[in-house]
Structures are given as structure tokens and as C-alpha cells.
Specification:
This protein is of the alpha/beta class and 181 residues long. It contains eight helices and five strands; from the N terminus they run E-H-E-H-E-H-E-H-E-H-H-H-H.
Length: 181
């Protein structure tokens, strides 16, 4: 993928690491900062194509950091950088009213990141989810059809719920299957 500049601001080292690795699966190596003050400073020193901003951070939260970035962009006649709020606690309206362009709930999936990148940097050639899953699991023969991805998601859900061997008996017809859902 092209050399797009992405900033990831989050006070949690674990979240920064996980999201950075997810972005790297999409061929993006983000710049990482720990709080809103560092995010504002980074934006003043670098032109970013996209910013993923945690909302609740020490020193300066994502809401106030976004407001300061918008003021800086306006004052210096800079192009508006899309800012995507990423949090598990704040409502979307607060993010949008601060100047954020979009909002994702934590935990963020690779699919959500890919969608946000495609939405806010439309010219990007972000790898498909299937190729990302193949890279993540190291499976070269992974089916890339929608059905194959659906089967992977179902298998993963069963595993996480503790039912790795649970399946619908073939003897059930489609009406019986619908009734059991």
C-alpha cells in the first residue's frame, strides 16, 4: 500500500500494540502517541492522512485534543485530517461535536479499521479481510469466499464460547434449524 501517514493516540500500551499490529496487517505502520498532548504535538509536526484517537486519556483527552487539532488546522490553513474516535465509554455525539469525523467502539477489529481507512482515505488499496486473516493465521490455502470467512467467524465464535465441537446435525431440515436459532 502507499505510504499513508496514520497516527494512533491511546494511553494504553496494550491497545497501542494491538491496534498497531492490526494496522500493520493492513500494510500501515502508524506513529504512536500516549496522550492527547502528544497527539496535538505530532499533528503540528507532521501531516497525517488519518488519526485514530482514544477518547479517554490522561493529560489531555481525545475530545479536547481533537478540538485543538481542528483549531490548529484552521489557523494554519491546513487540510482537515480525518479523526476517528476510538473508545469503549463515550457516546458518538460527543466525539462528532468535538470535530471527530467518525467513531469506533473498542475492541476494534481489523475489519473495522479497514472500513474506516477505506471510508476516510478512499484512494487506498487496503488488503482484503480474507488476506488479512490468512496473514494473521499463516494459512496460505484459506478460502477467500464469503462462505469461507463466515465459517471462520462461526468456528471462532464457537471456540470463544467454549463449544468447539458443537454443530447442527445434518438430519435437521432448514425449518428445524431456523426454529433452533
Amino acid at each position: 500500500m502507499e505510504n499513508y501517514k496514520v497516527l494512533l493516540a491511546d494511553d494504553s500500551a496494550v491497545v497501542r500494540k494491538v491496534v498497531a499490529q492490526q494496522l500493520m496487517l493492513l500494510d500501515i505502520v502508524p506513529d504512536l502517541v500516549e496522550d492527547g498532548l502528544q497527539a496535538v504535538s505530532a499533528v503540528q509536526n507532521e501531516n497525517y492522512d488519518l488519526i485514530f484517537m482514544d477518547v479517554m486519556m490522561p493529560n489531555l483527552d481525545g475530545i479536547e485534543a481533537t478540538k485543538r487539532i481542528r483549531e490548529f488546522e484552521h489557523r494554519d490553513h491546513r487540510t482537515r485530517t480525518p479523526i476517528i474516535g476510538v473508545t469503549g465509554y463515550t457516546d458518538r455525539a460527543a466525539c462528532i461535536s468535538s470535530g471527530m469525523d467518525d467513531f469506533l467502539f473498542k475492541p476494534v477489529s481489523v475489519e473495522q479499521l479497514r472500513g474506516a481507512i477505506k471510508n476516510w482515505i478512499p484512494a487506498t488499496n487496503v488488503p482484503t479481510v480474507a488476506s488479512t486473516v490468512a496473514a494473521l493465521f499463516g494459512e496460505s490455502d484459506l478460502q477467500t469466499t464469503q462462505g469461507g470467512l463466515a465459517e471462520l467467524r462461526i468456528a471462532d465464535l464457537k471456540r470463544r464460547l467454549g463449544f468447539p465441537n458443537m454443530s447442527v446435525p445434518d438430519s435437521l431440515n432448514s425449518e428445524q434449524r431456523s426454529a433452533t436459532k
